[in-house]
Write a structure and sequence with these properties.
It contains 8 helices and no strands. The chain is mostly helical.
């Protein structure tokens, strides 16, 4: 790879640098999302039962806040407290108000969960083509240099072409972890999303019939 970069031009080096940056960004997102999702999944598993086992809504909110580190469930619980009187947010019955605030809170949490997924999807989709472009450009550059030197033979061609093919392998090496991570994280996020969506629906039903709120 180093020999290929030494023989390549600025475009070839730019392609290699782009693949390197995409790889670094991908692995940063992978490690960060693995850490984040492990915390959130554990918190949700503990916080939702703790909420329903509390004797009243106030203590339920306090228990959830003490358990959670990423405030996924807490965000939903706290959203039911903020309904300004005399504004459009207070228009409609209690169920409509709760649907609105819980939906917005759920979108806020899901935005945090989905952060980085676009990067993984984009990297997995385009990095093989960037690597292929690097290969094509490397072969063209190598053949042009060999033709200019007037020494065309199989041994002179095989080395530069083989080195250029490394860019295709580099593109795949960047894409494969990104695609695998995107699919794995997608399944984990869908699982958390289902738990939070079910919890939000249950809280809405509870507070629609119970006039008090967890304050």
């Amino acid at each position: 790879m180093l020999e290929f970069l030494a023989q390549s031009d600025n475009i070839g080096r730019l392609v290699a640098l782009l693949l390197l940056l995409m790889s670094v960004a991908t692995w940063v997102v992978i490690f960060w999302k693995s850490w984040l999702l492990s915390r959130i999944m554990k918190d949700v598993r503990l916080a939702i039962p703790a909420f329903w086992q509390a004797p009243d809504l106030k203590q339920a909110a306090q228990r959830v806040a003490q358990i959670e580190r990423e405030a996924a469930v807490t965000t939903l619980v706290m959203a039911t407290r903020h309904q300004a009187a005399g504004s459009l947010a207070s228009v409609g019955d209690r169920g409509q108000q709760l649907t609105r605030v819980l939906r917005d809170a759920l979108h806020q949490v899901l935005g945090k969960l989905h952060f980085g997924q676009s990067l993984l999807a984009t990297t997995g989709a385009i990095s093989p083509f960037i690597g292929l472009f690097g290969t094509v450009w490397g072969i063209y550059h190598a053949l042009t240099a060999i033709a200019g030197a007037g020494q065309i033979s199989i041994d002179k061609v095989a080395g530069p072409v083989g080195e250029a093919l490394i860019m295709t392998a580099a593109g795949l090496a960047v894409a494969i972890p990104a695609v695998v991570a995107f699919n794995v994280f997608g399944r984990l996020i869908a699982r958390v999303e289902a738990d939070l969506d079910g919890f939000a629906r249950d809280v809405r039903e509870l507070l629609s019939q119970h006039p008090s709120s967890p304050s």
